[in-house]
Write a structure and sequence with these properties.
Chain A is of the alpha+beta class. Chain A is built from 8 helices and 5 strands; from the N terminus they run H-E-E-H-E-H-H-H-H-H-E-E-H. The relative contact order of chain A is 0.16. With 162 residues, chain B is mainly α. Chain B has one domain. Helix content of chain B is 69%, strand content 2%. A two-stranded antiparallel sheet of chain B has the order 1-2. The chains are: A alpha+beta (256), B mainly alpha (162). The interface between A and B is medium-sized, with 34 and 34 residues.
Amino acid sequence: MSKKADARAAKAAAELAAQQARERRRNLSIGALVLVLLVAIVSAGFLVRELTGGDSDVDTSAGTAEHSLTLGEDSAPHQVIIYEDFLCPYCGELERASHEELRRLVDEGQVQVTYRPFHLLQDFEYSGDALEVLAAVMETADPDVQEDLHNALFAEQPSESGPFPSQDDLVDLAVEQGADRDAVEAELDSDRPEQWVETATQEAQSAGVNSTPTVVLDGEQFTDFRTIDDLVTNLVAAIEAPADEPSAPASSGSAQ
Amino acid sequence: MLAAVSREQPGAAGWLGVAARLVTGGVWIWAGAMKVTDPDASVAAVRAYQLLPGDVAEVVGQVLPMAEIVLGLMLVLGLLTRLAGVLSALLFAAFIVGIASAWARGLTIDCGCFGGGGYDPDAVDKYPWEIARDAALLLLSLLVAWVRRTPLTVDRLLFRPV
């Protein structure tokens, strides 16, 4: 009799254990299913963006020679385009770290560098002032002076928290680089420099550039970096790398 | 017999857990929503930390906002609640490391936590508060994981107590 009860108890215990095992399996599968769903949701947004043409691509054809500072020949094997704002601190860091190296590569005929400065930091008047002075200098002075002013503006870059040089100070800086004061001031009195800044900024926006510095190497946005120093090192290495791989000279637009 | 499984009364810890879920989850949803509409800015904010290689920064910047929203919903709705608590704590720990490292390296960047990002001249004044905020949220996330079963969760509908 007690044996019978034992047997019944054992059977009940076994059933309970089986039941619990089933519940546990059920919980586990539901949990796994939910987790897979959640991961799918997170990845979906990313994949859709990647597949629908990746908005990180820069359409470099949306830029014109009049609004670019170009160093080197169209025939150079590599094309670098740098979108920048004269106040953006990382642009300053990039310029100060790279302009000598890039100048050397340009002189060696290894690369054509196109600077496309534009007014990204719309909250700051300084950024626009500097561009207008550059625009006036581009209209009235030699390419050497233009390049020197470009480099000087980054060398003397103010902090985003100010104090900011006035536009007159910037004209002084341009004159120091060899620009003609009267010609630059006359140009600034017209509305052409302002127009230039607006157009250059629109071109950058049409190109899909909304942060600076944006560096484009042979038609592809260059993102192989962690720090700005990395960026310079890797960019120079990429330009100097022997062109044994048939890397198609992409994007005819990049040469304007 | 099994139908009589007791619906245990939620204790103080349970309700504390609910509060922690709503606070951490709400912050995640808000943070994600501020960023998800502008993936480029989000990528730029990640880059500004100068911690991750370019390609990785790109992926992190793109995925993070959506992941934050989903994680927030998991916490608020109580879906895989303990896992969400642990993931939330890990993510806050990662952010604390990121901000502390930016601070230590002398970078002055907006943390980009709720959109924005990039250079910020007042960053050094903000770093301690950002770290304190994330540390508090990290503790709340751990609380969610520690309480195990809080009231008012989707988990209770999906999973049967064993």
